[in-house]
Amino acid sequence: MAVSENVERSAGSEVPERPDFFASLKLLMRYGEGAKPLLVLSAFLATGAVVLELVPIWVVWRLVIALIDGTASAGLFASYALIALAAVIAGYLLMGLALGLSHVAAFRLIHALRLAMARHLARLPMGWFAGRRSGGAKKLIVDEPERLEILVAHGLPEGVSAIGTWLAVTIWLFAVDWRMALAAIVLAPVAFGLMLSAMGRTSRMVGQYQAAGERMNGAIVEYLAGMAVIKIFNRSGESLGEAATAVRDYAAIETEMGRQFVPRGALFYTLVVANICVILPVGMLLMRSGTLNLTGLAFFVILGANYSQPLLKLFNLFHNMAHISMASTLIEDVLGTQTQTDTGKRIELPNREVKFENVRFGYDAHEVIHDVSFTAGDGAVTALVGPSGSGKSTLASLIPRLHDVWEGRITLGGTDIRDIGIDQLMEEVAFVFQDTFLFSGTIAENLRLGKAGATEAELHAAARAARAHAFITALPDGYETKLGEGGAALSGGERQRLAIARAILKNAPVIVLDEATAFADPDSEAAIQEALSELARDRTLIVVAHRLHTIMGADRIVVLDQGRLAETGRHGDLVAQGGLYARLWADYTAAQAISLRGNQAAEAAQ
Ligand SMILES: Nc1ncnc2c1ncn2[C@@H]1O[C@H](COP(=O)(O)OP(=O)(O)OP(=O)(O)O)[C@@H](O)[C@H]1O
Fold this sequence. Notes:
It is a single chain. The chain is of the alpha/beta class. The chain has 22 helices and twelve strands. The chain folds into two domains: 8-336, ABC transporter type 1, transmembrane domain (ABC transporter transmembrane region fold); 354-605, Rossmann fold (3-Layer(aba) Sandwich). The chain is 64% helix and 11% strand. 37% of the residues are buried.
């Protein structure tokens, strides 16, 4: 039990409170295979560029010395000007090249991360998805890796070169005069201390910021997705209110983070370039004492006052570091979430009998399936029935391992489904959902999800068997008709028949069918029943049944009551027993009679 339970429980949508400042580096080491050499080269080139940026400052210093010495001439000025110009142009080119490389490296890393996340997500338990609003999950997978761009494309080359150059020049300054060098660098630790404290303050809020961002994305996606219901109930004001509040909360946190960062951040900015205020008085004192000459002072005034400038390039990086680290922490969390176990084994199965043995399962800590055992015979039709919320859909979802059982086991042909490789299990079991999901794309593309590379003849045969061919060919573009997102252009019955055609194409020996609760019209329902009979032929069919007349001929009916097995048997025997099924049947036939009378009354009125 422990493993699956942990998988389900670790799958929630918790946002960590604080970021891990080393998370980005860990991701880069693990997923940056194609990016690392480019980054090293880029940092190298960027260091060259920053060194070249210092050349004009050195040139000014040399000219000042020449002026002091009285050796300055027009030729000297011209040649130094040329050196400065060449350095500026070369620096510009090197920096361009460095940034070009670092951007390619960033895109490679982001690409590798997205791919790794997409692969990983496909193997996560469904509980992970259920715990998130779709907008929040989209933000996590699409937006968060993007944040690494600032770090990799700008932060690393500019940061490494800035710190490298700063250190090299610091050593140079100390080599010339250690007292003046101390005066030049004394403010730097204070500036960095302030910056670290600013980062610490923002990092404390970044968990809230992230959660607010997920809430905002979720609220907006839900607002747009629920537009039809909102309009019907004329509730646009209130629903917009919820989305608007989420946006305001997000903006408020962002503003507060800015307020926390800016005072210290601005002071960092000021102190980094303020060392001239220390260099000048210390230099004057040393000159007075006769231990520093004018050229020495000029050196520190010109070079010492400017050499911290490259560190300003880190400002933007520092400002964003909490967000970048949080994004990396979240990505690490996703990639570290335990996936479903997969033995990868292919097992020769003697038959396709599905057996539940003392199965327990629940969501979060709440158990909803209690010790259920039954057998769905090979090639037989087994129906799961029970009052709403009794656990029918949950039980069905355990067969293709949308979730793993907590206790007990489910076997297919005598083998625990967790021992069968996921690829094989997916070939063995087709699942037709109650809410049929159709991707935006053509009908043919949607059908081919059942069998990649299926020929046109195969598509048509499956669609005919699913009683879908006629309505497909009646569409203007036939099988090439494009469906809107989620297949919005088709009726519920048509979507269900496409899903059945897809399952027929897949030709899996076990079909799990979560029967749709309502269909648009009796014609459509009759067509679906025919399609289902085709689908069930020679296959093990497990159907979650809502309309009991459709399963009167089932080989076995499994009746659930609040997650427990209440009774099993065939329709006639169960009705005769007078238990829960008999009551459900009585309610169902009474409801049918009422709707029949309603229809007759409507017809009579016409
Ligand atoms: N993703 C989920 N997270 C938490 N609880 C869930 C989830 N899905 C279902 N449940 C709960 O599990 C129990 C069984 O639900 P399930 O949907 O399996 O019942 P059902 O018999 O199929 O219901 P219906 O006939 O209304 O579709 C219910 O109490 C339900 O609230």
